[in-house]
Design a protein that fits this description.
alpha+beta, Glycosyltransferase, Beta-galactosidase, Chain A, domain 5, lyase, signal
Length: 556
């Protein structure tokens, strides 16, 4: 049968069954619905044909000839969602078009028909993720792709079911990457079937949603820069879908898509890897994105990114978090700082492990998993916004002051970054009568070689050293009593997640509680001289002496 619009409904007069091949596909032909960048590269069609699938970074599994769609071999939420999305089956149809291998199309038809029969909408036999909003959005384009080559009433009926779920305003994820996927899916179904109102709704929603998800500066609002890559890629797919439908891409969509490139580039370290803020792994490496000329950018969405220079792996680089309360893929990382210098990560964060409901996952989201001040004896008030109240951006030096009441009292942090003669200084202050501890997560490649006198010296395997010095203010006296945690599990502390579902021990410096504490990070120096004269601090770095002023809770 053909998918034709009959008034406002789809014709469903074809006989039931696995489906009949479109007679025009005796020679494989490529279609816009099946080709493009919308399908993942793994598993390959060869793997699927052998009965094997592999998702994420988990080992491959054998699914067999007859599929148990409720199967959850790893009890992993992400694996189960990807399995239910059927995008891996869509790879078979796409490769059928390019290779002419009939077995690919036959197996894809069997798998999708099996899923449809096993997962009736509203039926008790459906798998847990069958009709969840995101798998529906990712699966619908697979069904559209198959419909270009197979005519069957079960397929037509499932497309209608998917469209109704996608069009339901109660299930729409506005201003979120899931909503974008929903828009693409509904648009594809509407254009494939001639159901104009579905296509109109999809384009209208996509235009409004993208303005919420990407602000006027090009910053993604989901509080995890790596999702900027996903949204950029998916918006490209969405714009292609609009064009395939014979429509003009709204200017606002194209504008926001293009502006996102600068945000992605700013959030990428000189090493080429994206700084792992929020639900973003340390192994994400963007490529091909246009970069701006500015080396420092303050995003009102809650980020400061700065570097010495572009296209130089040895450039110093830092990130600072502030802004709106936690949402979507964010962590409780406000006031968090990361620091990269002399070709090495120095200060990092625990990173992203997974979406599993585990104690470790929730620890990675907590303040203690980030480089932040934690007020002692005060309960943390989650989802508290943090304000950037002062900034000074010069070519060789930048400073920023942030404040909030995440612990019920005023918490203030000032960050100063000096370039050339690399140095990072952070001054944390809380009201008299209260004290705060600072957490400083070091890259796993760095191990302590000495501790004492208010300083911790670390080095890597090459012998390169860095020093963390802590001073009480305004006395400027060295503060001793730092605790080094590494690989602790009760409670969790001293871990870094370098990639999905992995964690490695890493040293964390926990400062003693103080009302006003200055932390100075000196990369490339194992025993820097630090002197104070009134409010002026002088530090001998690997490149030369650096002086700055520390007064009234500010650094300059």
């Amino acid at each position: 049968m053909t998918l034709l619009l009959a008034g406002a409904a789809l014709s469903q007069a074809a006989p039931a069954g696995a489906g009949t091949l479109d007679t025009r596909t005796a020679q494989a032909r490529r279609t816009a619905e099946c080709q493009g960048d919308w399908l993942p590269s793994t598993p390959t069609s060869t793997q699927v044909m052998s009965g094997e699938v592999q998702f994420l970074d988990l080992p491959p599994v054998k699914i067999g000839e007859r599929i148990n769609w409720k199967w959850s071999p790893y009890k992993n939420r992400s694996w189960d969602m990807v399995f239910a999305s059927l995008r891996w089956v869509g790879r078979l149809v796409a490769d059928y078009e390019t290779s002419g291998e009939q077995a690919y199309l036959d197996r894809a038809t069997e798998l999708i028909k099996s899923w449809v029969e096993s997962n009736p909408r509203g039926g008790r036999g459906a798998s847990a993720y069958a009709w969840d909003e995101h798998p529906v959005a990712l699966r619908a384009p697979v069904l559209v792709c198959l419909s270009k080559h197979v005519k069957a009433s079960w397929l037509t009926g499932s497309l209608v079911d998917h469209a109704r779920v996608l069009a339901d305003p109660a299930l729409y994820q506005k201003g979120h990457n899931h909503g974008l996927d929903q828009d693409i899916a509904l648009l594809r179904i509407g254009c494939r079937t001639g159901h104009k109102e579905w296509a109109d709704l999809a384009v209208r929603r996509m235009t409004g949603s993208v303005k919420l998800d990407i602000d006027s500066q090009g910053a993604l609002q989901e509080q995890a820069p790596r999702y900027g890559i996903y949204v950029h890629e998916r918006l490209k797919v969405g714009m292609e879908a609009i064009k395939d439908c014979g429509r003009q891409v709204p200017a606002e969509i194209e504008k926001r898509w293009d502006s996102l490139q600068g945000y992605i580039s700013h959030a990428t370290e000189p090493s080429g890897f994206m700084t792992p803020i929020g639900d973003g792994g340390a192994d994400v490496r963007p490529s091909g994105y246009a970069r701006p000329s500015k080396t420092v950018q303050i995003f009102k969405a809650g980020y400061v990114f700065g570097r010495t220079a572009w296209d130089d792996p040895a450039s110093a680089y830092y990130s600072i978090r502030f802004g709106p309360a936690l949402k979507f893929h964010g962590h409780e990382d406000h006031m968090g700082v990361t620091y990269y210098a002399q070709g090495r990560d120095v200060l990092v964060e625990a990173g992203f492990h997974s979406y599993e409901n585990t104690a470790y996952r929730y620890w990675t989201m907590s303040p203690e998993a980030h480089n932040v001040p934690v007020v002692e004896g005060r309960p943390f008030r989650g989802r508290t916004p943090t304000a950037l109240v002062r900034s000074s951006v010069g070519k060789e030096r930048q400073s920023y002051t942030l404040t909030d009441k995440a612990y019920g009292v005023s918490r203030k942090r000032t960050v100063l970054v000096n370039h050339g003669d690399d140095l990072l200084a952070v001054l944390d202050t809380v009201p008299a009568g209260t004290r705060a501890r600072g957490y400083w997560h070091l890259d796993p490649a760095l191990t302590p070689v000495s501790t004492g006198g208010g300083r911790v010296v670390v080095k890597d395997k090459t012998g390169w050293k860095a020093t963390v010095v802590q001073l009480a203010m305004p006395s400027c006296a060295p503060v001793s009593g730092q605790t080094l945690a590494r690989g602790r599990t009760n409670p969790y502390q001293g871990w870094i997640s370098p990639s999905y579902m992995k964690r490695v021990p890493a040293t964390v410096i926990v400062s003693p509680p103080a009302t006003s504490l200055l932390t100075v990070v000196v990369p490339g120096a194992g025993d820097p001289e630090v002197t104070c004269s009134g409010t002026h601090v002088k530090v001998s770095t690997s490149g030369g002496a650096v002086s700055f002023r520390a007064a009234a809770g500010n650094l300059s």
